[in-house]
Specification:
The structure is a homodimer of 409-residue chains. The first copy, chain A, has helices at 40-54, 71-85, 99-111, 126-134, 151-163, 187-200, 255-261, 272-283, 286-312, 337-346, 377-395; strands spanning 26-27, 94-97, 117-121, 138-142, 144-145, 148-149, 170-173, 204-207, 232-237, 249-252, 326-330, 349-350, 352-353, 367-371. Chain A is an alpha/beta fold. Chain A starts with 25 loop residues before the first strand and ends in a 14-residue tail after the last helix.
Chain lengths: 409, 409
């Protein structure tokens, strides 16, 4: 006999979920990655080695490392951050989190009160915005150019807020392989950003989830690594560089910050087996894996750009990403990608509509985000062709693609 | 250069955490388990088998199973619940969570609004109470006897609330190996509980985390398995039966409930590697492991009861637990276990003070919870002796133990 829970639910809940219907045929959404690139053999070897050595420690919450997370993992992350991001820190400065989503949750829980204002990038990770909304914060999107946040525009925003007596709680940025644009903020811009933040007394949250996946292998130092970086709370993850289904991320911050975040982490610890296996793998194979994965992703990115060019022609504008897993595409104003999302979804082509990735939702409604990491190159070609057909049918755009009159084939 | 975050933190944050100082010499707190019993070899074999077969699925959030969690794990849990708890359900009725703590968080997030009332057990899991407080709910502790919630007392509470126009959001119970008392609610009591809940139109949350660890191996059916069980949201976990550092729990409920919980689970999924390994292990070794673990725990429980009897004598009262990992001890009223917690902690003996495990904090201040699962039998004997010494020094209790005048040895 079923029981009606309806009168007991909170009045402000989101709409109920539908039953999961499996992945779409052409899966260009989310942060899924290349399945063949998952280093399965090395993860097996890492699991065997670390369980043999320390498996019995699973009997205690937090293993033998306390609430900041498995200490060898924190030590390994510190080595990686020094080598890759120029960021000098120790295991004591790191809090392991259950994915970088939990990192954002903890930071928001410590800092955000209803009515607060946050500055983020005009094109921005949707999960960061939805979380801020849930905390009762409002956000302002800072305009971007090919090098990330435009300092002049940011200064104007900060000046405008100051005139109204508002000091934003923080500036949230994804400076290295920005989501969704794929840009990389050069060092000089990072230094300017720190200067402006200092001038207005504003903290920075640096989300570096994608930073390992940069085509040319070189990245500027983390903002947190630069002089004045004490104001930066830094987040990272292994979801993009190893596998998204592994839920291990981390926060790097000074102890006065970590000590306030820790009491908010009431999850009994981040999954220890995943921490142990990742820690072992970090020291045994990770670097070579990242190089190979990045090459694979660059190839898929090229295939995605070629397909969009071929099938959308001049109707689609984008800047070639410098790394990562996404292409951020602008279509003519007439195209409502929210509607395209529905029409394409019904035919097995899944896209992320731009409004969800835009601080100004309406302003992003003719854009879309395409993830090229998970689908095969063939699937990219077929799916983009199908998407162009559907878009043409719904909006008359693209009128024609590079070689074929739309509707003619 | 460090940056002062103080003015940016929320005004209602908990006190900052201290640096972790390692485990105490005599560790009787928390839900840690027996280290030797962690089935390391079988977990290694499970990891190897499941990664070899499905490791590449780690490239997608949710593997190939969608947001409810790894489908083979849900199928395995359904088989276990049928066999152990008489609970008929399918993979579709199960939501895998990041430990049962997340299960409580999701249930509270869906149901609790500030000002709500919840009925729970007078001696109750502290994490359940702290979560309710954080959600702005108040709770009432229903009196317990050796069979769990006293139905007469519960009826009186419900009647009293009804007279004030208050319908509680739910009754939270740990009926099978209650935390902290270790009692098991018999089937007849469960049926009565369901009847009373139906009469007053109140849902039930059944937390069955410890239910596998019952000395005689037999347990009554889950409350959710009984007629009228549709009003029950059921939670379980592998933290107690396999290893607490693995963060995998689950909720069993009808789809109209799960569909409202799912949108609140914004963590990108529960760690997939842990789900995969547990799923594989459930079918290969779990049953034998639980039998062996329970025998080990029963031996440690006997050692703990013997040590408490020896060193505290008639000053300590407790009922022999029917399973689990905890002994719930009542000392004379004069003993403040909050103070004892500090004094003993300073000398390496960690205990859980009773006020944190009592709905009426003041009423629990002369009780304490001792976890016997993690320490060795020797450590139990030494630690309890030391605790009795400290308690005698601080409160003059116990005056003397079974054979020795306090202070004489």
């Amino acid at each position: 006999m079923s029981f009606d829970y309806t009168p007991f639910f909170r009045s402000d809940l989101a709409a109920p979920a539908g039953r999961w219907g499996g992945f779409p045929a052409y899966n260009f959404v989310g942060g899924h990655n290349d399945a063949k690139s998952v280093p399965v053999d090395d993860l097996m070897a890492s699991a065997a080695a670390v369980l043999a050595r320390e498996g019995h420690a699973l009997a205690t919450y937090g293993l033998s490392s306390g609430p900041q997370g498995y200490r060898p993992l924190r030590e390994g992350v510190a080595i990686q951050l020094k080598a890759r991001a120029g960021l000098a820190c120790t295991a004591d400065d790191i809090l392991v989190t259950s994915g970088s989503l939990q990192a954002l949750d903890l930071i928001n829980a410590a800092l955000i009160e209803p009515g607060d204002t946050v500055i983020l990038e005009e094109a921005c990770y949707s999960g960061a915005m939805s979380r801020l909304k849930k905390c009762g914060a409002s956000y302002i999107g800072a305009p971007l150019d090919g090098d990330g946040i435009r300092i002049d525009a940011l200064t104007a925003i900060l000046e405008g807020l100051k005139a109204k007596g508002v000091r934003p709680k923080f500036i949230y940025t994804i400076p290295t392989v920005q989501n969704p644009t794929g840009s990389v903020m050069p060092r000089a811009r990072r230094e300017e950003l720190l200067k402006v933040a200092a001038a207005y007394g504003v903290p920075i949250v640096e989300d570096d989830c994608y930073a390992d996946l940069i085509w040319d292998g070189n990245r500027p130092p983390a903002i947190k690594a630069l002089p004045g970086g004490g104001r930066v709370i830094y987040c990272g993850s292994f979801s993009k560089s190893i596998a998204p289904a592994l839920r291990v991320g981390y926060i790097v911050a000074d102890w006065p910050v970590l000590s306030r975040l820790l009491p908010l982490k009431t999850d009994g610890g981040t999954g220890a087996l995943e921490q142990m296996v990742l820690s072992e793998y970090l020291a045994n194979g990770f670097d070579g894996h990242v190089t190979a994965l990045t090459r694979t992703l660059q190839g898929k990115c090229a295939a995605m750009m070629e397909a969009v060019n071929q099938h959308f022609g001049s109707a689609a504008e984008f800047t070639a990403p410098k790394g990562g897993i996404f292409l951020w595409v602008t279509l003519p104003d007439a195209v409502d990608t929210g509607k395209l999302f529905k029409a394409a979804g019904a035919e097995g082509v899944a896209i992320n509509p731009g409004s969800e990735w835009s601080a100004d939702a309406a302003g992003g409604s003719h854009r879309l985000r395409l993830c090229f990491a998970h689908p095969s190159v063939d699937s990219i070609r077929e799916g983009v062709a199908k998407l162009a057909e559907i878009c043409h049918r719904e909006f008359g755009v693209p009128v024609r693609s590079a070689n074929v009159q739309r509707g003619g084939s």
